[in-house]
Amino acid sequence: MTFLSKISDLSSSTISFLNTPEMIPVVSGALIGAISAGAVTLMTNFISSWFSKRAKDKMVRSIIRLSLESNKLMCESNLGILKNEIEGMRERGRFTKNPLFRFKESGVDLIFSNGKFTSFEVEFLWGNLSGIDAINNQLITLIESRQTLQIKIRGEPDTSMEWELSGMLVEYDSHIIERYEEALNNINSALYILNLSFFERAVLRFTYKNVNQASS
Fold it and tell me: How many angstroms separate the CA atoms of 104 and 1, rounded?
């Protein structure tokens, strides 16, 4: 008897044995157990994945929110410093010695690491956060120029030149204020999106989809 014949006979015997009335409940139970175990495993993996994504979503939102709130506070402080300086320069010819605070990273790259951000959240947050970073890059240069101008005013012996430089400093401050106010608008818009409730996000997500479908 060849090896293939032995395998064939063994298979036939096994099938015949499994088809006996005594084995039908056993086989059925085994199949049901296997299917149930598989279903439980899939469900467990799904729930575990859902909780993991939810935890990551909360962490990412918290990091971005803290950065925005910190930048908002710095922005408001800087606006107060600059407005006081403009008032002081116009009334007393004196500028403030208080340094301006630097912004923190907005966390814009974190948006794409979080799969639970909806399409409209990604679009609006990306626009606002990248806008904040762009303004911050401009402000770094403006603040350095402002500091240089302050040093020149402090060391200028010619009164007429000092007043001319002081006028330039007021113009610089006014321009910087505009940039900070623009950044503050972006910060408030991003915080508004992040602080939406689950229901509000669901409504906006549905509205956003319908708008996109209507425009396509």
Answer: 81
